[in-house]
Amino acid sequence: MTTYSEAGVNIEKGTETVKRIKKHVKSTFNENVLLDSGLFAGAIDLKKIKKMNNPVLLSSIDGVGTKTVIAEKMNKWDSIGQDLVNHSVNDILCHGGEPIAFLDYVASSSIKPEIIEEIVQGMTVACKENGVALIGGETAEMPDVYQENEIDLAGTILGIVEKEKLITGKNIKEKDVLIALPSNGLHTNGYSLARKVIEKTKISLKEQFVVEKEDLTIGGELLKIHKSYLKEVSFLLKKFELKGISHITGGGLIDNLPRIFPEGIGAKINPNKIKIPFIFEWIQENGVI
Amino acid sequence: MTTYSEAGVNIEKGTETVKRIKKHVKSTFNENVLLDSGLFAGAIDLKKIKKMNNPVLLSSIDGVGTKTVIAEKMNKWDSIGQDLVNHSVNDILCHGGEPIAFLDYVASSSIKPEIIEEIVQGMTVACKENGVALIGGETAEMPDVYQENEIDLAGTILGIVEKEKLITGKNIKEKDVLIALPSNGLHTNGYSLARKVIEKTKISLKEQFVVEKEDLTIGGELLKIHKSYLKEVSFLLKKFELKGISHITGGGLIDNLPRIFPEGIGAKINPNKIKIPFIFEWIQENGVI
């Protein structure tokens, strides 16, 4: 006889997880959410779209990468869900998108309901900050695929924009001005490299540094929440015609700026004018970026 | 000095993967897809929705579970992408949704561009069959999170439905008739259990069985593609008022039927009238469902 629990899949823990996260998920619901959680899909009433001239749906899927490994080592799970939502909000914002809904996917070798709850609860904090309803989610227990205690977290954002206001970068011309908004750290990229540097230097994640009179730890800096630029960019969009927006994630400035440039366009950046967050400097000093 | 490749992340392979999958992704594009692949989000022109009375957006996120482990053992990667898309199409179909777009997430300990291409190419086959544009995707290389050679595959479907035609199950009443559409096997659930039974019986995935004069292998049966019920259900929706639709996935009939039932409603099923696919019988004989 072989049972599900012998096969490493714990059905009760799945049910407990669903129970634990329900109230958090519901706290993100607004009057446009039509289906209750626990059905086969999430539903959003698009009545708002009926008033738009030429509505366009924007969507992006992403993960938080191995930032989950730092969360595991720090046993602090409330921030990576916020990272994921904010990262995703920024991605559709690059095209002028107003976020409306989010769906998450959490997978692990074994489900720990209290950890999933902490992740989802964090996610709902960011959902509410960005005006997003968490309309769907999946929790998967996959023994033999994931390493013990490790978790992967991915999700999809949905947003809308008027077709006339869709930002593509195609009108960017020579002599246009490049404006930068600062990050607060690694956001959700470069963690495999950062972890390797930490491993090599044998530094503790709790090691303290004093930077500009602030007490910091490496672990705390690594878990700093990926910023959502929704407020700043929404403000700029009202004041200016932004021709292109790039979200600087994996691959950095070098890979992400050209994604929105028309052929033949480049950017001139004075690196001395960029204030580098401490964690970048620390990695650079101890490894290489 | 620590570099990205020392940290187990191969940037060139990421770039090669993007190149390999681009043509497949583009083959799913229709006139409503507005942004090119490689930008920060996918975009769908919702002009169709302008003609609807009360448009509702439906969305669901899901994974294929440890069916990926069977794909890895059989070294056959073209079907799990189809599993994922079809599974997702069925999920929004439960609420009457017409699928319009899909986004995928593939993560692994190390990226193998040729395997990712095979998965995505399969995914685009199902996308085209279901009239869905593959508007977004993310490939993540996560050493230390995934076990060697293992892959996880998840994705999000987007669809639309008229609010008046949103199927919720809430009008289901006593004496309503339950219609079943057959599956062709395990679809995308129960694989951790199935694999445990295989491990215990020490059977080869290539072991042949003759069932109703057909030559079958265990591996072949396990990889049978999750059926999309889009055609059948669309036909039924035109002819009948379907009050509720349930997609029988993990948890089986016992867990999935009650998801759409109003309180106090149950279903009477005669198990002798259900034709059980061979693979279920084989698992039942050798383990327990």
Layout of strands and helices, then pairs:
The structure is a homodimer of 289-residue chains.
Chain A: H1 11-26, E1 42-45, H2 47-50, E2 55-63, H3 67-74, H4 80-93, E3 98-108, H5 113-129, E4 133-141, E5 151-162, H6 191-201, E6 208-211, E7 214-217, H7 218-222, H8 230-239, H9 252-256, H10 278-286
Parallel strand pairs in A: 3-4
Antiparallel strand pairs in A: 2-5, 3-5, 6-7
Description:
The structure is a homodimer of 289-residue chains. Chain A is of the alpha+beta class. Chain A has helices at residues 11-26, 47-50, 67-74, 80-93, 113-129, 191-201, 218-222, 230-239, 252-256, 278-286, and strands spanning 42-45, 55-63, 98-108, 133-141, 151-162, 208-211, 214-217. Chain A folds into two domains: 11-165, 2-Layer Sandwich (60s Ribosomal Protein L30, Chain: A), CATH 3.30.1330.10; 191-287, Phosphoribosyl-aminoimidazole Synthetase, Chain A, domain 2, CATH 3.90.650.10. In chain A, the strands form two sheets. A four-stranded mixed beta sheet of chain A has the order 2-5-3-4, covered by helices on one side. Chains A and B meet through strand 1, helix 2, strand 2, helix 4 and strand 3 of A and strand 1, helix 2, strand 2, helix 4 and strand 3 of B.
